[in-house]
């Protein structure tokens, strides 16, 4: 079920796949309204929000920065080491994130809108979209890009990959696929071609 009558494209991919670069191209070159689930996940745990209070109750003050904001790195380390804790956190946050996403998508003024989420498939957020676009890269390239970008150990990247949908699962849900194993120009060409397709689909979807 989509949040409005507008065409909603779900954009996903594993860590280090290039989701952000693809989303930036849609937004900056084509003026498409982008809703980033990662940003919404930060909003729902801001100081003063009930979710942050519940997280601190469960994990203690160690998950807080000195300024009272959530220490996402510490929390990530705790939940990726314990599947039960990760499930508890997801059950707390996913409905709150969904509400934020629905509100933002409903405000989109572009011909279609983009929902960017690394957990699009496993969280069920794809049900808010009409098409799923997967940015796909080989796992070895995901690991190399992420360790270089975030300066984190390979073991931590592999733990994140295990928590995300497997590559094959994402591809099974895909209507469209961007192969991001080349340079940025190749990524942009694929986005530009998809933009034209989505404009035609959005036009056809109008009553």
Please give a handful of descriptors for the protein shown.
5-stranded parallel β-sheet; single chain; globular; 9 helices; 207 residues
* Residue share in helix: 40-55%
Strand content: 5-15%
Rg: 17 Å
Q: What is the terminal separation in angstroms?
A: 17 Å
How would you state the average pLDDT, rounded? 89
Number of strands: 5
Order of helices and strands: EHEHHHHEEHHHEH
User: With helices defined by DSSP (H or I, 4 residues minimum), what is the helix count?
Assistant: 9
Helix-strand layout with pairing:
Elements: E1 7-12, H1 19-30, E2 33-36, H2 37-43, H3 50-59, H4 72-80, H5 83-106, E3 112-116, E4 131-136, H6 139-150, H7 154-163, H8 167-173, E5 176-179, H9 184-205
Helix pairs in contact: 1-9, 2-5
């Amino acid at each position: 079920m989509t949040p409005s009558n507008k065409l909603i494209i779900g954009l996903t991919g594993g860590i280090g796949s290039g989701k952000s670069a693809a989303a930036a191209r849609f937004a900056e070159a084509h003026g498409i309204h982008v809703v980033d689930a990662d940003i919404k996940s930060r909003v729902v745990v801001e100081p003063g929000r009930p979710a942050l209070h519940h997280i601190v109750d469960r994990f203690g003050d160690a998950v807080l920065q000195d300024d009272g904001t959530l220490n996402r790195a510490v929390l990530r380390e705790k939940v990726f080491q314990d599947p039960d804790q990760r499930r508890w956190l997801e059950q707390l946050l996913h409905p709150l994130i969904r509400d934020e996403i629905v509100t933002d998508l409903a405000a989109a003024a572009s011909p279609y809108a983009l929902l960017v989420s690394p957990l699009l498939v496993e969280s069920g957020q794809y049900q808010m979209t009409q098409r799923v676009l997967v940015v796909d890269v080989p796992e070895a390239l995901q690991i190399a890009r992420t360790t270089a970008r975030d300066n984190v150990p390979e073991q931590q990247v592999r733990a994140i990959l295990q928590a995300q949908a497997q590559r094959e699962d994402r591809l099974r849900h895909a209507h469209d696929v961007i192969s991001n194993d080349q340079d940025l120009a190749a990524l942009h060409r694929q986005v530009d071609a998809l933009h034209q397709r989505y404009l035609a689909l959005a036009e056809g979807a109008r009553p």
